[in-house]
Amino acid sequence: MHVTHDDPGALRHACRSGAFTLPTAGHAGGHIQANLMIVPQADAFDFLLFCQRNPKPCPLIEVLAQGSREVQCAPGSDIATDVPGYRVYRHGELVEERADVAALWQPDFVTFLIGCSFSFEAAVAEAGIPLRHVVQRRNVAMYRTNVACAPAGRFSGEMVVSMRPIKSRDVARAVEISGRFPQAHGTPVHVGNPRAIGIADLMKPDYGDAVEIRDDEVPVFWACGVTPQWVSQRSRLPLCITHAPGKMFVTDLKG
Amino acid sequence: MHVTHDDPGALRHACRSGAFTLPTAGHAGGHIQANLMIVPQADAFDFLLFCQRNPKPCPLIEVLAQGSREVQCAPGSDIATDVPGYRVYRHGELVEERADVAALWQPDFVTFLIGCSFSFEAAVAEAGIPLRHVVQRRNVAMYRTNVACAPAGRFSGEMVVSMRPIKSRDVARAVEISGRFPQAHGTPVHVGNPRAIGIADLMKPDYGDAVEIRDDEVPVFWACGVTPQWVSQRSRLPLCITHAPGKMFVTDLKG
Fold it and tell me: Domain B118-228: what homologous superfamily?
């Protein structure tokens, strides 16, 4: 049975009880979903600065106070339990995927919520520009690029982008519409010409699923919220916790 | 003799040598000027978070690495000497105004450059909307409000706003134009009705100079870069260094 949770609070509670463990796309429609990054206080300034210097891949929705687990834009939430799945990285290696991180919680943890593309995708689709991965119910295709992010302290690495094929006549409108959502990565970072940013083969994404690109379409690249995970791996961060792919934190904010 | 420095690097060198000690408005035209805030690393995460949570009063232009004195958007600069005047606050009290802070420099200092209103003022004036304080060569009128900023760690306090009288027919256009400059405080935070934000008498600003408001004009309020100074005082921060009023850091960025 496929149940859609329209109420973000109910969805978070279902995550907490273990009843909901799926990717969150299509759930709690109209509410802003967020990428998750939790780091110890010792790395929090550097990571906050990294986000400030790289607002396109890392648009901040909210940063919690040290040790706090309740997200302000989701009253009653518990960030250690209310995501459908978590990943734990140590020294840049994925060591564990878990249903909650309550047992790992440290009083010095600082939680960062980073915008995701769902908000602008909904607006683009509503404007009559179909998005293939949504139509085909796949994950969006994502690629590591050779574009260096602005480093900050111990954080450095290349930007990850998501790609959507857009008809030539619709590219300008897709730019315009996504630009209204700076907290959902905003305007594209690159249009056409994948090799120029180090992508050798669009059919072989580093994350997510490949989609066909038709003759009248251009590959359009947006900065992607997977960037901070990739950069944390590259930077061999001693410890960080993220959401599992596609399993986002759902806020009460309307997008 | 009144010398205008058009080149931002030359202006910074004149500050460094002590040859230039004036307010920077009208100098290095077209280059972005910035409010300065320097805090020790122990308070840097909280202050960065305060800026992230209050982007209208505190739009970040650049945050320097710990201990660094060279601003990236002003190559060759020295933040400890290249501002025409500095203020030193200890435990919320102004203790000193100095020509440079090289002798006070600590390796744990973190420098924040915060946008100022000059960029949007130039664009508004160019659109044919005159700004009285510019025409009359006064400081803009600034007021402490009763509007609480979003607190962050030890930083909390009320927003400071600047006020410009705008003709009723020009208000919408002034909103539109200033909105193009999010790094210069963006759109107004309040239009008309000063009492609603705790301003009892527009003729008695807390900082800067009062200007007349004519019958066909509305007082329009923008978030002001003095906010972080006021909040640091209110928060009794052990130590911070700011620019002296009107004596901004001039970057190489074009605004």
Answer: PSTPO5379-like domain (3.30.2040.10)
